[in-house]
Design brief:
Bound molecules: acetamide
CATH superfamily: Carbon-nitrogen hydrolase
Strand order of the largest sheet: 5-4-3-2-1-14
CATH architecture: 4-Layer Sandwich
Order of helices and strands: EHEHHEEEHEEHEHEEEEEEEE
Strand content: 25-35%
Distance between the termini: 40 Å
CATH class: Alpha Beta
Number of helices: 6
Shape: globular
CATH topology: Nitrilase/N-carbamoyl-D-aminoacid amidohydrolase
Mean pLDDT: 98
Structural class: alpha/beta
Length: 265
């Protein structure tokens, strides 16, 4: 199926949730895509100094402002949206992403591999690497930023049937964009890494984000990339079935050639 997919690389304003959501909704309105992926913590920014800041903007998955605003945008634009947000559930906070579909369905992923100071504020994710239907039943797997360094993240999503890996990010290390070509190649899946750009400094907690958001095809080729510093919406048309063929040669297949009995330490 021909499917218009994209990323929206931008610079959220720290703790300005309503303003960021308005900007995200505007980007959805202008994009004309079937699937749009936004960065990690796109509604809040990233450089938390105190847990009280997380508490100020964290929200429940389906009843929070992000769900309400973006369900409307998804429905009005017939666009599936993946967005990173700070989630509150009981007494815990998660660095989460949600998939919101035009039909009003929505699905949650909680970041499993927390990076650096995130461990001071968020609980490790407990939702697993599940795969969910987006618009036209295309199979979407979500992982967030630092999950990239664990090949098991993308591998599990592929084994669960993902055709596209939606990858909201706030990258600060220089290796991910290159590594994601390999994640795509070794799993024969499309990947959309939606990173943020810009520098953020909050009370001495500072981060320089690497931009370079990208889309890869299922052969591990980069189809489109943003630059390092500027806001940019990148959209491309893909053929989703390209992710369904796991044959490498006539005699080799990514799934059936696996030797699981040797993969445990
Ligand atoms: C990261 O996981 N935000 C680097």
């Amino acid at each position: 199926m021909k499917y218009r997919v994209g990323f929206c690389q931008f610079q959220p304003e720290f703790l300005a949730k309503e303003k960021n959501l308005e900007k995200i909704a505007n980007m959805v309105n202008n994009a004309k895509a079937d699937l749009l992926v936004f960065p990690e913590l796109a509604t809040s920014g990233y450089s938390f100094a105190h847990i009280s800041e997380v508490a100020q903007i964290a929200e429940p998955f389906q009843k929070g402002l992000t769900s309400i605003v973006l369900k409307k945008a998804a429905w009005e634009n017939k666009c599936s949206i993946v967005v990173g947000f700070a989630e509150s559930d009981n007494d815990k906070f998660y660095n989460s992403s949600m998939l919101i579909n035009p039909d009003g369905s929505s699905y949650l992923y909680r970041k499993i591999h927390l990076f650096y100071h995130e461990k001071k504020f968020f609980s490790p994710g407990d939702t697993g690497f599940k795969v969910y239907p987006a618009k036209h039943d295309v199979k979407i797997g979500m992982m967030v930023c630092f999950d990239w360094i664990f090949p098991e993240s993308a591998r599990t999503l592929m084994l669960n049937g993902a055709q596209i890996i939606a990858h909201p990010a706030n990258l600060v290390l220089p290796w991910c964009q290159q590594a994601m070509l390999t994640r795509a190649l070794e799993n024969r899946v499309f990947t959309i890494t939606s990173n943020r750009n810009g520098y953020e400094n909050n009370q001495g907690v500072s981060n320089d984000f690497t931009g370079l958001s990208q889309i890869t095809n299922a052969k591990g080729e980069r189809l489109l990339q943003a630059n390092q510093t500027e806001e940019f919406t990148g959209i491309i048309e893909i053929e989703t079935e390209d992710a369904d063929n796991k044959s490498i040669t006539e005699f080799n297949n990514l799934i059936t050639d696996r030797r699981e009995e040797f993969y445990h330490s």
